[in-house]
Design a protein that fits this description.
The chain has about 325 residues and is an alpha+beta fold. The chain contains 9 helices and 18 strands. The relative contact order is 0.12. The structure holds flavin-adenine dinucleotide (FAD). InterPro entries: FAD-bd_PCMH, FAD-bd_PCMH-like_sf, FAD-bd_PCMH_sub1, FAD-bd_PCMH_sub2, MurB, MurB_C, MurB_C_sf, Oxid_FAD_bind_N. It comes from Sulfobacillus thermosulfidooxidans (strain DSM 9293 / VKM B-1269 / AT-1). It catalyses: UDP-N-acetyl-alpha-D-muramate + NADP(+) = UDP-N-acetyl-3-O-(1-carboxyvinyl)-alpha-D-glucosamine + NADPH + H(+).
Length: about 325
């Protein structure tokens, strides 16, 4: 089935907007990314599941996108049905010390909802952009806490199987990693356990975290958060700053002068520009410290020349290895 046949079929179902050849740069915080052959925004959880079952049955490649705040989408785009959770999965339910929320809910909204219910434990999430779904996949975290500290159960859709419920242990949370990346589960809903606390103290913490971020990160510039993971016990930002990389640029992709582990798009940056900059940084850090930086941002779509878009290919595809001379 070609893209236009897929789009025609989906439009018949009246499940929300269906776009063809939709630039993903419109749907990512980096403002980077080639077109999705089909882009669909289902209106409800039922619509989303109907689409998932259908693409699965017909072996049509698909990709689920939250707010696009942790992705670097290939300039070649994605020959797949990109399913956005931005309209579906928006419910939030507070029950005693538990919050149950749809995977399309924004983390910031969730943090505010917890505050209104005088529940503590989600303050760290107030300044992390993106959806609950993306946060589960990434085990998102900040200020000494992360999703695995609060998640109790997750309802997912599994390819070839359907809907099932996972425990937090099943989800296999690690530092900015989870079994979602391996098992290709789609998060539908999660329940989180919090604790009753003092509303003023919760709000103070949230304000403190938001202020901190404004002071230390390039708020306002297009970016996808931390580009590299911290190589425990060190910090990627410290290492990158120490090699003098702040301000390095390739085209409009610039190493932020505010925080060295952020690459910002000053206008017309391409995924290729960001990738070249990442290769350069990684090579110089390795030459100086013998530490291999691993990407936190997720590459989506094919690599250069249409190769498989794995980081291994992306790093070494053009000889951009870790040996001198660096690019
Ligand atoms: C300015 C800025 C600051 C940031 N700060 C932090 C921070 O402090 N800590 C931190 O951890 N992250 C941070 N991030 C990264 C990002 O915000 C988080 O990783 C966030 O959780 C991603 O959510 P998303 O909805 O945007 O996911 P997306 O970028 O849309 O997707 C990320 C991955 O999750 C998958 N995905 C999304 N939704 C689902 C779903 N429902 N089911 C299955 N898979 C899904 C996608 O397929 C993709 O592989 C920051 C980003 C920015 C731009």
């Amino acid at each position: 089935m070609n893209a236009s046949e897929i789009a025609t079929e989906l439009r018949h179902w009246d499940i929300g907007p269906v776009l063809e050849n939709e630039p993903l740069s419109r749907h990512t915080s980096f403002r980077i990314g080639g077109p999705a052959s089909v882009y669909v925004q289902p209106n409800s959880q039922e619509d989303l599941i109907q689409i998932l079952n259908w693409v699965d049955q017909h072996e049509i490649p698909f990709f689920v996108l939250g707010q696009g705040t942790n992705v670097l989408v290939s300039d070649l785009g994605l020959d797949a049905v990109v399913i956005s959770t931005s309209r579906a999965l928006r419910h939030i339910l507070v029950d005693q010390e538990r919050i149950v929320a749809g995977a399309g809910v924004l983390l910031t909204k969730l943090a505010h909802k917890a505050h209104q219910a005088a529940l503590q434990g989600l303050e760290f999430a107030v300044s992390i952009p993106g959806t609950l779904g993306g946060a589960l996949v990434m085990n998102a975290g900040a200020h000494g806490s992360e999703m695995r500290n609060i998640v109790e159960q997750i309802r997912v859709w599994e390819p070839g199987y359907g809907i099932k419920t996972l425990s937090a242990t099943d989800a296999g949370f690690e530092y900015r990693r989870s079994q979602f990346m391996v098992r290709h589960w789609i998060a539908l809903e999660a329940s989180m356990t919090l604790k009753h606390g003092d509303m003023h103290a919760i709000l103070d913490n949230m304000r403190h975290f938001m202020d901190y971020r404004k002071r230390t990160q390039p708020v306002g510039d297009a970016n996808a958060g931390s580009v590299f993971k911290n190589p425990h016990p060190d910090y990627a930002g410290r290492l990158i700053e120490s090699i003098g990389a702040k301000g390095w640029h390739v085209g409009d992709a610039v190493v932020s002068p505010v925080h060295a582990n952020f690459i910002v798009n000053r206008g017309k940056a391409k995924a290729r520009d960001v990738l070249t900059l990442m290769r350069r940084i990684r090579c110089h850090v390795f030459q100086r410290y013998h530490i291999v930086l691993r990407p936190e941002v997720r590459w989506i779509g094919p690599g250069e020349g249409g190769t498989e878009g794995t980081w291994e290919n992306l790093w070494y595809g053009e000889g951009g290895g870790l040996q001198e001379p660096c690019e």
